[in-house]
Design brief:
five-stranded antiparallel sheet; two-stranded antiparallel sheet; 18% strand; 276 residues; alpha+beta; binds the ligand COc1cc(-c2ccc3ncc(-c4cccc([C@@H](O)NCCN(C)C)c4)n3n2)ccc1O; 9 helices
């Protein structure tokens, strides 16, 4: 069983305002007393007993911590410390000040393909790194892609929220029904054995979005989508080719993160191929 620091987290960190909350618990800004450095603290309530419906199993928190401890990459949120008390575990991670990529893009008049390629390249580098470590995120969606500093000329992408992540062991079969309807892979909906390919269905606006979750899931299983002119009239054919090679039902036919990084949209063969 993993042992986390038993110190009282408030002896070392001043707990600040809530930054956000969700299935993952509550995230607070925290100030390290010894250095005045600001971090983010994710506060996770543990189940009080086997029959308790509230809180998380300690085993699932240990799994998330073990995965985060194994990942050191500039495009993946870094874990600094873990504290536990009788009822809660606190993960101290790097504070990401630039907000969600989705909001950054929404606030811009328009995003050029060159800017989109730069963000996609960073996302792919983080995802490729975790896949090489046989880790799948399993909840990649726009809200979990954040920016280090949205005012920087070239903001760094930071992938957060590894609460659904899984490290594959050679030869094991893993299935899950978790995830967010608009962004989950068809193999998850069909409860088939999963692999890192399930992470490769990431998109900004889900092309499968239906009126209801049920309709969205039907669209994903049918791989029913179209490049709506309203959104794609200015999109290059190279970019559409990139998307089409990801939105593939058969996970073994879907581009891997490594293949994405050498796709001509991301890595042009020559200057004339640069997306206008
Ligand atoms: C360690 O696990 C997590 C960390 C974080 C995290 C880490 C650093 C950090 N710096 C700033 C924030 C932040 C700021 C505003 C909102 C949120 C969060 O509530 N929304 C992010 C997306 N959400 C769907 C997880 C998070 N975070 N969030 C979020 C979810 C996690 O499961």
């Amino acid at each position: 069983m993993a042992v986390f620091k038993l110190d009282n987290v408030e002896d070392l960190y001043e707990i600040g305002s809530v930054l956000g909350s969700g299935h993952f618990g509550q995230v607070h800004e925290v100030r390290e007393r010894a250095t005045d450095v600001l971090w983010a603290g994710k506060f996770l309530k543990l189940k009080k007993g086997a029959g308790s419906r509230l809180g998380l199993e300690r085993k699932s928190v240990e799994k998330e911590v073990e995965i985060l401890q194994s990942l050191q990459h500039q495009n993946i949120m870094a874990l600094k410390d873990v504290f536990e008390s009788r009822a809660e575990v606190v993960l101290i991670v790097e504070l990401i000040k630039g907000g969600e990529l989705f909001d950054f893009i929404a606030e811009k008049e328009n995003l050029t393909e060159t800017e989109a390629i730069e963000f996609m390249k960073q996302i792919l580098e983080g995802v490729c790194y975790m896949h090489q470590k046989t880790v799948a995120h399993f909840d990649l969606k726009p809200e979990n892609i954040m920016l280090s500093d949205k005012h920087a000329p070239n903001p760094d992408i930071k992938i957060i929220d590894f609460g659904m992540a899984h490290r594959f062991i050679q030869g094991e079969e893993y299935k899950s029904l978790g995830g967010t309807p608009q962004y989950i892979a068809p193999e998850i909906i069909n409860y088939e054995p999963l692999g890192t390919a399930a992470d490769m269905c990431l998109s900004g606006l889900s092309p499968f979005q239906g009126e209801t979750d049920e309709e969205t899931l039907r669209n994903i299983v049918a791989m029913k989508y179209e490049f709506e002119p309203h959104y794609f009239s200015q999109t290059s054919n190279m970019a559409k080719d990139f998307i089409q090679k990801l939105l593939v039902k058969d996970q073994s036919e879907r581009m891997t993160a490594e293949e994405c990084l050498i796709h001509p949209w991301i890595k042009p063969l020559n200057r004339t191929q640069i997306a206008k």
